[in-house]
């Protein structure tokens, strides 16, 4: 092993000499000086040799090796400096990450004023003289270019606005009133584009309607972007607007007591081609009245608040039951929180906030308790309760001589023979002779005439109830009253 002379002439191994060098010292003491012939660097307060260092060779001879000492010294100091530099870099890296997180936390933070936020529900909390406004934490982008708002309650005036605003928009102004903002207002159907005076744009929106807003990300050019608005999934119109430096943030405004909406910042909206395909299969035109109920093909979903008995979601068919189409069915897809699902028949002008069966001119079978309600809020025990997957049915057994005056004018129904599908309830189109009451006058008016309404569960009849047909006929009516309820409807299960 090569050796080096100590100050007293003793030859020491280089490894031992190297171990005598200090491995670490305070940063302020790292001052270096040149001494002796070897011109090596010496930390202040550390003694170095003033003579040449010799290294033993393999043949036993020694020679001066100034380069060897300088190399060992440089390595030692380099290792120390690298360790310190790495430590400081790590500290700076952690500090930088912390600063970035703090900046992002401030930037991506939702802002709202005079509103109460409960999950995805926003409620107005002002005094109707002041605007309440909500601004989402993140702007619309290419990956998230659309959002929707469902009107849960229009309140006193229904002054609900949906649109896009800059990040630091003033929260005491409706979206669309100030520059660089745009919004579609539900109460008047007008578009407000950076101006407190709006322009006629689309239809008014009411309770249960969905207002959507999005951007065509592929059309942005030179600081401009195309913004579009939708109502119940159908595009109302679009306009090109300038983009703020920080982007355009989803915003909702309210201005009267009782207003409430449900916000969906992750909503999706397809292309025009997808929409046209959906419209073909949508069945929405089969419904004359929809309150707090969303239609998606044959699926009905409750979108009401579900907090009181007045928050009924009601769906009423466009056409009444007739001798050509006298039966319909509902499958419980999701019972929701309480399974307050009702299936029955009601007059055309049935109150929208009353469950089927609760008011005059209606009869219904309720899934949650298995009771039948006939024009009263008090039900009678009728059949078993219904759960997820069960199919509830309702129909009319008309007298043989029963003919509606308006039946021939209905073009929406096929005149084909009525025949049951496999596994379905038998076709009870007419009453049997023993079911018909004796003494019926065939000349009496059909309005007000009695018929037999029957209900089924999973294809089996569970009971009947004699009722009087209201003027205009009985319309298939479905009611829901708790969050999450979904049903699949078949208005023509017996058609061929």
Ordered list of secondary-structure elements with their pairings:
Layout: E1 3-5, E2 11-13, H1 14-19, E3 34-35, E4 40-41, E5 54-56, E6 62-64, H2 66-107, E7 111-113, E8 115-118, E9 121-124, E10 132-135, E11 146-154, E12 161-165, E13 182-185, E14 190-193, E15 199-200, E16 210-221, E17 224-231, E18 234-242, E19 249-254, E20 259-264, H3 272-281, E21 287-291, E22 293-296, E23 299-302, E24 313-317, E25 327-335, E26 342-346, E27 362-366, E28 371-374, E29 380-381, E30 391-397, E31 450-457, E32 460-468, E33 475-480, E34 485-490
Antiparallel strand pairs: 1-2, 3-4, 5-6, 7-10, 8-9, 9-20, 10-19, 11-16, 11-20, 12-13, 12-19, 13-14, 14-15, 16-17, 17-18, 21-24, 22-23, 23-34, 24-33, 25-30, 25-34, 26-27, 26-33, 27-28, 28-29, 30-31, 31-32
Task: Briefly note the structural class of the backbone.
Answer: mainly beta
Largest sheet: 7 strands, antiparallel
Count of distinct structural domains = 3
Whole-angstrom Rg? 40 Å
- Unreliably modeled segments: 3-7, 11-64, 271-281, 406-446
Average pLDDT figure: 77
- Please tally the helical runs, counting DSSP H or I stretches of 4 or more residues: 3
Strand tally is 34
Amount of helix: 10-25%
Strand proportion:
35-45%
Please tell me the CATH architecture of the largest domain by its name: Sandwich
Instruction: Give the distance, in angstroms, between the N- and C-terminal Cα atoms.
Output: 103 Å
CATH homologous group name of the largest domain: SPRY domain
Shape by Cα distribution:
elongated
CATH topology title of the largest domain: Jelly Rolls
The CATH class of the largest domain is identified as: Mainly Beta
């Amino acid at each position: 092993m090569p050796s080096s002379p100590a100050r007293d002439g003793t030859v020491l191994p280089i490894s031992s000499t190297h171990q005598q060098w200090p491995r670490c010292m305070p940063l302020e003491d790292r001052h270096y000086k040149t001494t002796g012939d070897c011109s090596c660097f010496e930390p202040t307060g550390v003694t170095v040799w003033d003579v040449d260092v010799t290294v033993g060779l393999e043949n036993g001879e020694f020679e001066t090796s100034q380069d060897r000492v300088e190399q060992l010294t440089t390595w030692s100091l380099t290792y120390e400096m690298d360790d310190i530099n790495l430590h400081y870099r790590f500290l700076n890296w952690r500090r930088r990450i912390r600063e970035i997180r703090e900046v992002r936390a401030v930037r991506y933070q939702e802002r709202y004023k005079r509103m109460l936020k409960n999950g995805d529900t926003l409620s107005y909390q002002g005094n109707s003289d002041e605007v309440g406004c909500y601004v989402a934490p993140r702007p619309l982008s290419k990956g998230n270019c659309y959002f929707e708002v469902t009107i849960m309650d229009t309140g006193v005036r229904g002054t609900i606005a949906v649109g896009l605003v800059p990040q630091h928009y003033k929260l005491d102004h409706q979206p669309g009133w100030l520059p660089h903002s745009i919004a579609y207002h539900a109460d008047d159907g007008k578009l407000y584009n950076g101006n407190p005076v709006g322009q006629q744009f689309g239809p008014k929106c009411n309770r249960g309607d969905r207002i959507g807003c999005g951007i065509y990300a592929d059309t942005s050019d030179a600081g401009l972007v195309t913004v579009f608005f939708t109502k119940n999934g159908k595009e109302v119109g679009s306009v090109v607007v300038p983009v703020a430096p920080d982007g355009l943030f989803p915003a909702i405004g309210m201005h009267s007591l009782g207003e409430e909406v449900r916000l969906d910042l992750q909503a999706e909206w397809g292309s025009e081609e997808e929409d046209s395909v959906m419209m073909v299969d949508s069945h929405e035109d089969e419904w004359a009245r929809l309150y707090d109920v969303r239609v998606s093909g044959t699926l009905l979903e409750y979108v009401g608040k579900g907090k009181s008995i007045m928050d009924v979601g009601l769906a009423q068919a466009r056409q009444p039951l007739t001798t050509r189409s006298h039966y319909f069915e509902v499958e419980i897809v999701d019972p929701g929180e309480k399974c307050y699902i009702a299936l029955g028949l009601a007059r055309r002008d049935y109150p929208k906030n009353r469950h089927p069966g609760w008011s005059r001119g209606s009869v219904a079978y309720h899934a949650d308790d298995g009771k039948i309600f006939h024009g009263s809020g008090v039900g009678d025990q009728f059949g078993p309760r219904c759960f997820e997957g069960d199919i509830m049915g309702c129909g009319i057994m008309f007298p043989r001589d029963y003919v509606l005056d308006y039946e021939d004018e209905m073009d929406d129904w096929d005149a084909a023979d009525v025949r049951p599908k496999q596994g379905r309830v038998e076709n009870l189109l007419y009453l049997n002779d023993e079911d018909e009451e004796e003494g019926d006058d065939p000349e009496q008016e059909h309005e007000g005439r009695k018929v037999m309404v029957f209900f089924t569960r999973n294809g089996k009849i569970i009971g009947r109830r004699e009722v009087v047909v209201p003027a205009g006929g009985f319309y298939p009516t479905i009611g829901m009253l708790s969050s999450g309820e979904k049903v699949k409807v078949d208005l023509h299960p017996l058609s061929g």
